[in-house]
Design goal:
Helix content is 24%, strand content 24%. The strands form two sheets. The protein has a six-stranded mixed β-sheet. A two-stranded antiparallel ribbon has the order 5-8. Strand 2 and strand 3 (35-39) form a beta hairpin. By secondary structure, the protein is of the alpha+beta class.
């Protein structure tokens, strides 16, 4: 398991202070080797995690992380990125989407009977459920 980002003493609310942000506003947090750190629900507006950026169909766009968000007493953490520097995510081309459709169809095709299932065939066996159950019954009857 990963080591905590900071020690418990630095996570105490008494260690927090007002930090000057990039937009001139202030937020309650603390400084860890030059990087602003915010507890869960303390992060100011205008910052987002990678998952939050993805939900907005954005990406960091090459910018370095601006701050750190910590929770679970420093055992869990995430980078925070500035929303004003984030870029829209790239959109897949029709050729890329076509290639993905073909790859997914290959994952759903049974290697024994050739039927296209509505689920991904396990790579360990390469057969659909019908082929696996018919072989089980055939070996049990013999």
């Amino acid at each position: 398991m990963a080591a905590p980002l900071m020690d418990r003493a630095s996570l105490h609310p008494a260690a927090s202070r007002w930090i000057e942000l990039w937009n001139g506003k202030q937020a309650l947090g603390w400084d860890h080797h030059g990087t602003p750190v915010f507890k869960f629900r303390w992060a100011p507006a205008g910052l987002a995690t990678r998952r939050q950026l993805r939900a907005l169909r954005m990406c960091p766009g090459g910018q370095p992380p601006y701050a750190v968000l910590v929770w679970r007493n420093g055992k869990a953490w995430a980078w925070l990125y500035r929303l004003d520097l984030a870029r829209p995510s790239r959109v897949a081309s029709p050729a890329q989407l076509n290639a993905l459709d073909k790859a997914m169809q290959a994952r759903r095709t049974c290697g024994q009977c050739g039927r296209i299932a509505d689920y991904c065939i396990p790579t360990s066996d390469g057969r659909c459920d019908q082929c696996m159950t018919s072989d089980r019954y055939a070996t049990a009857a013999a």
